[in-house]
Amino acid sequence: MADDIPTRPRGDQVEPDIAAADWLLGDEEQKRSSPSKPTSPAADEVFDLADGSSSDWIEVNRSVSPNSPSARESAKKTRTAPAPQADPEQLVPETWSRMREWGPNLLVLGAWGFSIALVSYFILGQEHYYLALLTFLAGIVGGAVLAYPMLITLERPVRITPEQAVRDYYAALSHHVPHLRRMWLLLSAAGRVSYSFGSYEGFKGYWRGRLADLRSGHAGPLTPLVFEVTEFKSDKSAGKTAIDATFVVKVFVRGKRGQGPVRSIPCRLTLVRGPDKMWYLENGLLSAQA
Protein backbone atom coordinates (compact mmCIF):
# COMPACT_ATOMS: atom_id res chain seq x y z
CA MET A 1 0.00 0.00 0.00
CA ALA A 2 2.92 2.23 0.31
CA ASP A 3 3.15 2.31 -3.41
CA ASP A 4 -0.42 3.66 -3.70
CA ILE A 5 0.44 6.86 -1.88
CA PRO A 6 0.75 9.65 -4.43
CA THR A 7 4.06 11.41 -4.48
CA ARG A 8 4.82 14.97 -5.60
CA PRO A 9 7.91 15.73 -7.52
CA ARG A 10 10.78 17.13 -5.49
CA GLY A 11 10.77 20.35 -7.39
CA ASP A 12 7.12 20.96 -6.55
CA GLN A 13 7.48 20.46 -2.83
CA VAL A 14 6.79 23.57 -0.67
CA GLU A 15 8.20 24.00 2.76
CA PRO A 16 5.93 26.49 4.42
CA ASP A 17 8.01 26.92 7.53
CA ILE A 18 11.16 27.77 5.60
CA ALA A 19 9.27 30.07 3.25
CA ALA A 20 7.71 31.94 6.17
CA ALA A 21 11.09 32.33 7.78
CA ASP A 22 12.57 33.65 4.54
CA TRP A 23 9.74 36.21 4.30
CA LEU A 24 10.28 37.40 7.84
CA LEU A 25 14.02 37.64 7.34
CA GLY A 26 13.53 39.48 4.09
CA ASP A 27 11.20 42.00 5.74
CA GLU A 28 13.67 42.47 8.58
CA GLU A 29 16.48 43.05 6.10
CA GLN A 30 14.32 45.61 4.28
CA LYS A 31 13.69 47.44 7.51
CA ARG A 32 17.40 47.46 8.34
CA SER A 33 18.40 48.61 4.88
CA SER A 34 15.83 51.48 4.76
CA PRO A 35 17.14 54.80 6.35
CA SER A 36 15.62 55.54 9.69
CA LYS A 37 14.19 59.03 10.27
CA PRO A 38 15.30 60.88 13.38
CA THR A 39 12.70 61.22 16.03
CA SER A 40 11.88 64.56 17.57
CA PRO A 41 9.68 65.72 20.44
CA ALA A 42 5.99 65.70 19.83
CA ALA A 43 5.93 69.48 19.81
CA ASP A 44 8.18 69.57 16.72
CA GLU A 45 6.56 66.65 14.80
CA VAL A 46 5.63 67.60 11.26
CA PHE A 47 3.99 65.28 8.74
CA ASP A 48 5.66 65.03 5.37
CA LEU A 49 3.80 67.07 2.80
CA ALA A 50 3.03 65.76 -0.64
CA ASP A 51 5.48 68.12 -2.26
CA GLY A 52 8.27 67.19 0.17
CA SER A 53 8.59 70.73 1.64
CA SER A 54 8.28 69.81 5.31
CA SER A 55 11.96 70.45 6.01
CA ASP A 56 11.68 73.96 4.57
CA TRP A 57 8.65 74.66 6.72
CA ILE A 58 10.54 73.53 9.82
CA GLU A 59 13.41 75.90 9.08
CA VAL A 60 11.08 78.88 8.59
CA ASN A 61 9.11 77.98 11.70
CA ARG A 62 12.29 77.84 13.78
CA SER A 63 13.60 81.12 12.37
CA VAL A 64 10.56 83.04 13.61
CA SER A 65 10.17 81.20 16.89
CA PRO A 66 9.72 83.70 19.74
CA ASN A 67 11.96 81.55 21.94
CA SER A 68 14.90 81.59 19.56
CA PRO A 69 18.02 83.55 20.62
CA SER A 70 17.73 85.93 17.65
CA ALA A 71 14.10 86.74 18.49
CA ARG A 72 14.94 87.35 22.14
CA GLU A 73 17.86 89.58 21.18
CA SER A 74 15.67 91.56 18.77
CA ALA A 75 12.98 92.01 21.41
CA LYS A 76 15.61 93.17 23.92
CA LYS A 77 16.95 95.78 21.51
CA THR A 78 13.42 97.00 20.83
CA ARG A 79 12.70 97.42 24.54
CA THR A 80 15.97 99.19 25.29
CA ALA A 81 16.01 101.46 22.22
CA PRO A 82 15.80 105.14 23.31
CA ALA A 83 12.74 107.12 22.26
CA PRO A 84 13.38 109.62 19.45
CA GLN A 85 13.81 113.17 20.74
CA ALA A 86 12.05 116.16 19.24
CA ASP A 87 13.92 118.56 17.00
CA PRO A 88 14.98 121.67 19.02
CA GLU A 89 14.35 123.90 15.99
CA GLN A 90 10.73 122.78 15.93
CA LEU A 91 10.31 123.23 19.67
CA VAL A 92 11.88 126.71 19.64
CA PRO A 93 11.74 128.20 16.13
CA GLU A 94 12.67 131.68 17.43
CA THR A 95 15.47 131.79 19.97
CA TRP A 96 16.44 134.72 22.15
CA SER A 97 18.98 137.17 20.74
CA ARG A 98 20.03 140.68 21.61
CA MET A 99 18.81 142.05 18.29
CA ARG A 100 15.38 140.42 18.64
CA GLU A 101 15.08 141.83 22.14
CA TRP A 102 16.34 145.35 21.44
CA GLY A 103 15.47 145.68 17.76
CA PRO A 104 12.13 147.53 18.12
CA ASN A 105 13.53 149.81 20.84
CA LEU A 106 16.55 150.69 18.73
CA LEU A 107 14.30 151.64 15.81
CA VAL A 108 12.16 153.89 18.02
CA LEU A 109 15.22 155.41 19.68
CA GLY A 110 16.86 156.06 16.33
CA ALA A 111 13.74 157.73 14.95
CA TRP A 112 13.50 159.88 18.10
CA GLY A 113 17.14 160.96 17.90
CA PHE A 114 16.79 161.86 14.21
CA SER A 115 13.69 163.96 14.92
CA ILE A 116 15.38 165.85 17.78
CA ALA A 117 18.46 166.54 15.65
CA LEU A 118 16.31 167.81 12.77
CA VAL A 119 14.23 170.11 14.98
CA SER A 120 17.34 171.44 16.75
CA TYR A 121 18.92 172.21 13.37
CA PHE A 122 15.98 174.36 12.24
CA ILE A 123 15.85 176.14 15.59
CA LEU A 124 19.55 176.94 15.40
CA GLY A 125 18.97 178.21 11.88
CA GLN A 126 16.58 180.77 13.37
CA GLU A 127 19.25 181.67 15.92
CA HIS A 128 17.09 180.63 18.88
CA TYR A 129 19.96 179.19 20.84
CA TYR A 130 18.17 178.93 24.18
CA LEU A 131 15.23 177.10 22.62
CA ALA A 132 17.62 174.78 20.77
CA LEU A 133 19.30 173.93 24.06
CA LEU A 134 15.95 173.11 25.67
CA THR A 135 15.03 170.96 22.70
CA PHE A 136 18.30 169.10 22.97
CA LEU A 137 17.81 168.47 26.72
CA ALA A 138 14.24 167.28 26.12
CA GLY A 139 15.59 164.93 23.50
CA ILE A 140 18.02 163.42 26.02
CA VAL A 141 15.29 162.90 28.60
CA GLY A 142 12.97 161.37 26.02
CA GLY A 143 15.75 159.15 24.74
CA ALA A 144 16.44 157.87 28.27
CA VAL A 145 12.77 156.97 28.67
CA LEU A 146 12.75 155.16 25.33
CA ALA A 147 15.95 153.36 26.24
CA TYR A 148 14.55 152.16 29.58
CA PRO A 149 13.70 148.66 28.28
CA MET A 150 17.31 148.25 27.16
CA LEU A 151 18.76 149.62 30.38
CA ILE A 152 16.93 147.06 32.50
CA THR A 153 18.04 144.17 30.27
CA LEU A 154 21.75 144.84 29.98
CA GLU A 155 22.41 141.47 31.60
CA ARG A 156 22.03 138.59 29.20
CA PRO A 157 19.60 135.81 30.19
CA VAL A 158 21.97 132.85 30.48
CA ARG A 159 19.72 129.76 30.82
CA ILE A 160 22.08 126.83 30.96
CA THR A 161 19.82 125.13 33.52
CA PRO A 162 15.99 125.01 33.63
CA GLU A 163 15.98 126.85 36.96
CA GLN A 164 17.89 129.77 35.44
CA ALA A 165 15.33 129.97 32.63
CA VAL A 166 12.42 130.17 35.08
CA ARG A 167 14.16 132.79 37.21
CA ASP A 168 15.04 134.99 34.21
CA TYR A 169 11.49 134.76 32.91
CA TYR A 170 9.83 136.05 36.07
CA ALA A 171 12.67 138.47 36.86
CA ALA A 172 11.66 140.44 33.75
CA LEU A 173 8.44 141.37 35.61
CA SER A 174 10.27 142.96 38.55
CA HIS A 175 10.50 146.47 37.06
CA HIS A 176 8.40 149.62 36.87
CA VAL A 177 7.76 148.66 33.27
CA PRO A 178 8.02 144.88 32.91
CA HIS A 179 10.06 143.74 29.91
CA LEU A 180 7.40 141.63 28.24
CA ARG A 181 9.37 141.26 25.02
CA ARG A 182 12.14 139.37 26.83
CA MET A 183 9.56 137.11 28.43
CA TRP A 184 8.01 136.43 25.03
CA LEU A 185 11.39 135.46 23.60
CA LEU A 186 11.99 133.04 26.50
CA LEU A 187 8.94 130.97 25.51
CA SER A 188 8.91 127.97 23.20
CA ALA A 189 6.49 127.62 20.30
CA ALA A 190 4.00 125.81 22.55
CA GLY A 191 4.41 128.41 25.29
CA ARG A 192 3.22 131.18 22.97
CA VAL A 193 -0.22 129.60 22.61
CA SER A 194 -2.64 129.23 25.53
CA TYR A 195 -6.27 129.81 26.45
CA SER A 196 -5.34 133.42 27.39
CA PHE A 197 -3.31 134.50 24.36
CA GLY A 198 -2.12 133.38 20.97
CA SER A 199 0.00 136.34 19.86
CA TYR A 200 2.41 138.87 21.32
CA GLU A 201 -0.34 141.49 21.63
CA GLY A 202 -2.52 139.03 23.51
CA PHE A 203 0.46 138.10 25.69
CA LYS A 204 0.96 141.74 26.68
CA GLY A 205 -2.74 142.12 27.44
CA TYR A 206 -2.71 139.03 29.64
CA TRP A 207 0.20 140.24 31.77
CA ARG A 208 -1.13 143.76 32.15
CA GLY A 209 -4.33 142.34 33.55
CA ARG A 210 -2.46 139.78 35.67
CA LEU A 211 -0.22 142.44 37.23
CA ALA A 212 -3.19 144.67 37.97
CA ASP A 213 -4.87 141.76 39.74
CA LEU A 214 -1.75 141.03 41.82
CA ARG A 215 -1.44 144.71 42.83
CA SER A 216 -5.09 145.03 43.78
CA GLY A 217 -5.35 145.91 47.47
CA HIS A 218 -1.59 145.75 47.97
CA ALA A 219 0.13 148.38 45.81
CA GLY A 220 -0.56 151.30 43.50
CA PRO A 221 -0.44 151.09 39.67
CA LEU A 222 3.07 152.58 39.57
CA THR A 223 4.54 150.45 42.35
CA PRO A 224 6.61 147.60 40.95
CA LEU A 225 6.20 144.03 42.14
CA VAL A 226 9.06 141.66 42.83
CA PHE A 227 8.81 138.02 41.69
CA GLU A 228 10.92 135.37 43.40
CA VAL A 229 11.15 131.71 42.34
CA THR A 230 11.57 129.26 45.23
CA GLU A 231 11.34 125.50 45.89
CA PHE A 232 12.38 124.65 42.34
CA LYS A 233 12.42 120.88 41.68
CA SER A 234 13.14 118.93 38.50
CA ASP A 235 15.04 115.92 37.24
CA LYS A 236 18.60 116.23 36.01
CA SER A 237 18.62 117.94 32.63
CA ALA A 238 21.86 116.47 31.25
CA GLY A 239 21.27 114.95 27.83
CA LYS A 240 17.56 115.84 27.73
CA THR A 241 15.60 118.13 25.43
CA ALA A 242 12.52 118.40 27.67
CA ILE A 243 12.04 118.33 31.41
CA ASP A 244 9.18 118.86 33.90
CA ALA A 245 9.61 121.21 36.84
CA THR A 246 7.66 122.39 39.86
CA PHE A 247 8.29 125.59 41.81
CA VAL A 248 6.62 128.37 43.77
CA VAL A 249 6.45 132.00 42.66
CA LYS A 250 6.31 134.45 45.55
CA VAL A 251 5.10 137.97 44.76
CA PHE A 252 6.32 140.88 46.91
CA VAL A 253 5.65 144.60 46.83
CA ARG A 254 8.88 146.54 46.37
CA GLY A 255 9.80 148.31 49.58
CA LYS A 256 7.55 146.00 51.62
CA ARG A 257 9.32 142.67 51.36
CA GLY A 258 9.57 142.50 55.13
CA GLN A 259 5.81 142.09 55.27
CA GLY A 260 6.04 138.85 53.34
CA PRO A 261 4.67 137.89 49.94
CA VAL A 262 1.24 139.05 48.86
CA ARG A 263 0.82 135.86 46.83
CA SER A 264 2.51 132.46 46.74
CA ILE A 265 1.60 130.56 43.59
CA PRO A 266 2.68 126.92 43.07
CA CYS A 267 3.43 126.21 39.41
CA ARG A 268 4.17 123.20 37.25
CA LEU A 269 5.41 123.37 33.67
CA THR A 270 7.66 121.80 31.06
CA LEU A 271 10.86 123.33 29.72
CA VAL A 272 12.54 122.46 26.42
CA ARG A 273 16.05 122.98 25.14
CA GLY A 274 16.36 125.17 22.05
CA PRO A 275 18.87 124.98 19.19
CA ASP A 276 21.05 127.51 21.09
CA LYS A 277 21.35 124.94 23.96
CA MET A 278 19.35 127.24 26.27
CA TRP A 279 16.10 126.36 28.04
CA TYR A 280 12.67 127.78 27.15
CA LEU A 281 9.34 127.66 28.98
CA GLU A 282 6.41 125.73 27.52
CA ASN A 283 3.90 127.81 29.50
CA GLY A 284 3.88 131.59 29.90
CA LEU A 285 1.06 131.85 32.42
CA LEU A 286 1.23 132.50 36.14
CA SER A 287 -1.34 130.25 37.75
CA ALA A 288 -1.56 127.13 39.87
CA GLN A 289 -2.64 125.25 36.75
CA ALA A 290 0.46 126.25 34.77
H and E order: HHHHHHHHHHEEEE
Helix content: 40-55%
How much of the residues is beta strand, in percent? 5-15%
Shape: globular
Can you walk me through this structure?
The protein has a four-stranded antiparallel sheet with strand order 1-2-3-4. Strand 3 (263-273) and strand 4 form a beta hairpin. Helix 5 packs antiparallel against helix 6. It has helices at 16-33, 54-63, 69-80, 88-91, 98-125, 129-146, 148-151, 162-171, 180-185, 200-215; strands at 225-234, 242-253, 263-273, 279-281. Residues 1-64 and 75-83 have low confidence and may be disordered. The protein is of the alpha+beta class. It has ten helices and four strands. It starts with 15 loop residues before the first helix and ends in a 9-residue tail after the last strand.
What is the topology?
Layout: H1 16-33, H2 54-63, H3 69-80, H4 88-91, H5 98-125, H6 129-146, H7 148-151, H8 162-171, H9 180-185, H10 200-215, E1 225-234, E2 242-253, E3 263-273, E4 279-281
Antiparallel strand pairs: 1-2, 2-3, 3-4
